[in-house]
User: What shape does this take?
Amino acid sequence: MILRLEEIYSRLLGRYGCLGWWPADSPFEVCVGAILTQNTNWINVEKAIANLRQADCLSLDGILRIAEGQLAVLIRPAGYFNVKARRLKDFVSFIENDCAGSLDAAFSGELEVVRSRLLKVKGIGPETADSMMLYAGQRPSFVVDAYTRRIFSRLGLVPENIGYDDLRNLFMSSLESDAGIFNQYHALIVEHAKRHCKAKPLCDKCCLGNVCCFGSKL
DNA sequence: GTCCAGGGCCTAC
DNA sequence: GTAGGCCATGGA
Assistant: This one.
C-alpha cells in the first residue's frame, strides 16, 4: 500500500503530537542554528549557541562585531568551525547590507524571490534557506533533508536519488501552503527518523509500517 | 576505533 | 552536470 503525504502526516502527528519547532528564542537564533547545524548533530549546535549567548554575541550586532577568529572559537563544538564562522559573517553581512539590518525584510516578498536571494549568500544552500524561511520567517517553504529523502524513498513514494527541489516541489504541490503545517511536518519527519530509522534491527510500533526502519544506511 | 549527524562549496572529469 | 573531496566536533 502506498501512503499519501497527507496520510503520513496524519499518522506522524497522531504518533508524536505537536512538536513546536524550532527550539530557539528568536528568529535570528533560528538562522544561526540553521547554519551551525549543517551536517552536525543538534546537541553540538546547542553548545555553540550557548557559547555565543554567554559571550553576548547571539545577535546581528554581536556577530558583526566579533572577529571571525574569535567567532570560530565560540562555535567550535559545532564542528567545521572555520567554515561556519565565515558563513555566519557572510549571513549577517547580507542582512546588514542587503536587508537594511532587518530579518523581517530578508523574509518579505514573493516566496521564491526571497529564497533565491538567500541562496545567493555563500554558505546558504537549499535546506538552510528553507529552514530559515520556514522557522525564522514563518514562510511556507518546505524543508527537505536527508531524513525526508530516506524515509520517503523507503516508502516507495520517490526515487532514492531524487533531487532536493523535486522533493520539495512534491510536498509543496501536494499539501496546503501553510507554514504551520510545513513546520510540523518537517519536525515530525526528523523526530520519527531519530526514533526509528536508526533502529537496528527493525523497530516495532512504527506508525509507517516499519518500511522506513532498517538502519541508517541503505 | 568507526560511524554518523537536521549541508554546502570547490575542483576535476 | 555530477561525482568526490573537504571541512571537524562529539556522542553512540
Residues 33-35, 37-45, 79-80, 83, 87, 122-128, 131, 143, 145-148, 186-187, 189-190, 193-194, 198, 216-217 of chain A lie near DNA strand B (CB under 10 Å from a C1'). The radius of gyration of chain A is 18 Å. The mean pLDDT of chain A is 91. DSSP finds twelve helices and no strands in chain A.
